[in-house]
Amino acid sequence: MASERSGIDVETERTLIKALHAAIRDDEDDFEAQLEAFSTKDALLAADARCTDLAALIMLQQYGGILQEASIQELAERLTRFASWSGITPDEFAAYINAIFNATPILTVLEIGPALRAPFILLANLLVNFRKDEEAWFNYLDRVWDSLEDGASQS
Amino acid sequence: MAELAEITEALRAVCGEGPGLTSRVERARVSAISLADRADSHGWTGVAASMRGAVDALRSVVVELVESQRAGVAALAQLDLIDDQGSVEQVSGYLVGAQRELATAVQKIDAVAGFVDVALHACAQAGQRGLPAALTAVRAEVVETRGRLEESRNACDQERVLVEAWLQENPDQGTAGDASAEGSTPAVSENVAAAASTVQPAAPAPSPSQESSSPVSSLEARESFDQLIDPAGRTLLPREVPGGTDSRLQPEEGEDARRADDIGVAPEDGLTRRTRRALAWTAAGTIIGQSTIGAVLEFGSSLGQAIGTAIFGAAAMIIEGPAIVKTLRETRNKKSAKPGLRKRAHGK
Predict the structure, then answer these.
(1) Is B216 on the interface with A (CB under 8 A)?
(2) Are A87 and B333 contacting, i.e. CB atoms less than 8 angstroms apart?
(3) What is the arithmetic mean of pLDDT over A67-93?
(4) A13/B258 touch (CB, cutoff 8 Å), yes or no
(5) Which of B26, B262, B348 is the best residue to mutate to test the A interface, defined by the most A CB atoms within 10 Å of its own CB?
(6) What is the residue extent of each domain of chain A?
């Protein structure tokens, strides 16, 4: 049974980071290999969920709240360009972003393929766009992740 | 007859309530699992077996609910395609598409009701009294949802009949753009125009408190998950203040340059500082990686449910575990015709 306060183990976290780097490197083959490297279905879904949490936090911080429709469209089109190899359309990325802010079960708005991949691509793109100029993308990831869990421990 | 805008809004409302219903069923399922475990611990094998039956039935309820919701959203997408620029034939096509999806939604919600009955029967066999009360309430909601989906389907059918009748009477008006070009266009075209102008995006409208430009971190409200993000429109989250034409993203060239910088930069052995620290914690027996919706929003949350978990929770019940690699390979890459970004971004 999945816990509502689900954890994520270190090996899952490590694979998640490799998948993000593959997306940033524009390396489709390695990206797919990393998705297959998650030890179980639950590990992959936990990574998808964690990417979603982190992306939500970055978006809320950087946009000052739920994105306006125009911002969602712009981001969705940028994501399609960012990962053109994925075949995920702007409409599908937009549906995913809207699902985040409406807390909609992902499979009600996306087919399984885009649903499993979009979270990694969105987070990878946000890390590239919003890291500080001299900051490594994974250090920004660390910063966001820490603030996520610091908040969790306080709530 | 209901206008198209009313049909769309009614259906949007039904779809908006879907996630809440699914969450309630998931909570009932968690309760059923707990009851089964407790029965097991007492050695009450018959009771435990009955409760496991309820758990299985509730798993199927979630699966069918998600499918019904997906079909409802697909119908809504068809209706959203209707505007006053399209031809009457296009409008008819979208209405037919919406009807088809709604028929699927009704079929799935019928299955939901069936599985709820199975769960109720299993609870009765186990002599359980608390859970059936919750499930009976769920069932009533399912029946009501079915009625509303059926109403939407019938309303789409009536609208389509009207459109097609008008097209027969005005055979020269069916091509693109004609539906709105003449003053003699039928009532349905007015409905269509009304829908296009009045239908709002799925995201909830901001409350007065949301309209400030305060960053999330400055908000002090502490509300439950349901109040923070609620498709029915009670969200307390702020909304981005429209920034005119200014993008918050890097320009495309800037994004490419930053990405090029990031390509060769990877954490050593795939371990960031955080991950190394987490490894040390894990070695010490500390669970890492718990996050809550409250943490994401920096609000604090009374329910403690992560956004990601809310979105991907039901997926775990739908995707078959052993077949996940097969699923990944089958769904890999719908192949875009666009050139690879690597070539554009990095000159390779």
Answers:
(1) yes
(2) yes
(3) 95
(4) no
(5) B262
(6) 10-148
Chain B residue at shortest CA distance from A68: B240
Both tokens of A141, joined, read 């990831």
**pLDDT per residue as tens digits for the range A16-37:** 999 999 999 999 999 999 999 9
- In the structure, how many helices (H) and strands (E) does chain B have? 13, 0
User: pLDDT by residue (tens digit) across B269-294?
Assistant: 778 888 887 677 656 544 444 444 44
Q: In sequence order, what are the residues at sequence separation of 6 or more whose Cβ sits closer than 8 angstroms to the Cβ of residue B148?
A: B10, B14
| A122 neighbourhood in chain B, CB within 8 Å | none
The CA distance from A108 to A111, in Å, is 8
Q: A7: pLDDT confidence band, cut at 50, 70 and 90?
A: low
Q: Bridge-partner residues for B223, per DSSP?
A: B301
Cα(B119)–Cα(B101) distance, integer angstroms: 27
Report, as ranges of residue numbers, the positions in chain B whose pLDDT lies below 70: 1-2, 171-238, 243-245, 278, 281-306, 321, 333-348
Q: Is A70 exposed, middle or buried (0-12, 13-18, 19+ CB in 10 A)?
A: middle
**What does the pLDDT read at residue B286?**
47
DSSP-derived letter for residue B335 is -
Which pair of structure tokens corresponds to residue B294? 């409250």
Look up the pTM and report it: 0.55
Q: How far apart are CA B50 and CA B187, in angstroms?
A: 56
Q: Does B236 touch chain A (CB under 8 A)?
A: no
Report DSSP letters for B95-113, one per residue: HHHHHHHHHHHHHHHHHHH
The answer to whether A121 and A82 have CB atoms below 8 angstroms apart is yes
Spatial distance between the Cα atoms of B76 and B85, rounded to a whole number of angstroms = 18
User: A interface mutation test: which of B296, B305, B331 has the most A CBs within 10 A?
Assistant: B296
d(CA A11, CA A17): 10
